[in-house]
Structure formats: C-alpha cells, structure tokens
# Entry
Amino acid sequence: MKVLRGTEYRELEISGSRAELQALGQALQSGEGQIDVPKDPNPEPYDSSLSRIDFRVTSGKITMSTTGETLKIQGAQEFFAVLADHIESFGAEADLDSHIHIDYFPGHDYLTEGSESLVLCFDKATQAAPDESRTA
# Structure
C-alpha cells in the first residue's frame, strides 16, 4: 500500500491491492491504531510519499490531515465506521482500473470542512489476475 500527497490541491492518494485496501477498512473500524507504509521513491504526479497512517477516535466528523510523513485520521467512531465501510467495499468490489474520490462538500455526511481530499485506487504493480479476490 502507498500513501501519496499533492500539496497544491491538498489531495491524498491511497493505493494498494484488494487485500490491502480491505485490511485498511477493517483496521479503521477499530478507530485506533497506526499502519506503517513503505515510501514510494517516485510519487509522481504527487509531491511526496507518506510513511504512516495514524487513526484516533476523537469527537465530531472525520478530519484527514498530514503532519510530516503521517496521514492523520481523526473523528468519532460512528464516522470511522462509514469511512471504513467505503474503503473496505471499494477494495472488495471495485473494478481494478477504477478509483473514487472522498472529498468534503457542505453538508458532507462524515467529513469536516478543511479535511484533505482522498483518492482511493488500486496499485497496478500489486495486482494479480483481473478477477483477484472477486466472487461471482
């Protein structure tokens, strides 16, 4: 799994295999923890590669922000459950060439204003057969 960040638009990309994205969703269900991720020496078209995801239960809607090389995700457990479900479902069901954006907009169900935008996609380098982990 990789976590990349573009500073111009405050956008994050998390990419990985089906199993990695599903595991991230499952980990977020707990609302507490950290995941170390390998840095990508060539993060283009992004500016940098992060080395850790840190998630903590606090209050209120989800905030995604970066500090140094760490993606910080904080918010109430009920909102973690929604974000986790989106990530886990994407990992399990999406086409391997697809991606989704998780962006704040006024009235967003679970993100706070000022939260960094997130793109979820599959890391093509980690993919096996096109139907990997999919069931009929």
In short: Strands lie at 2-6, 11-16, 33-36, 48-50, 52-57, 63-67, 70-75, 99-102, 117-122. The chain has two helices and nine strands.
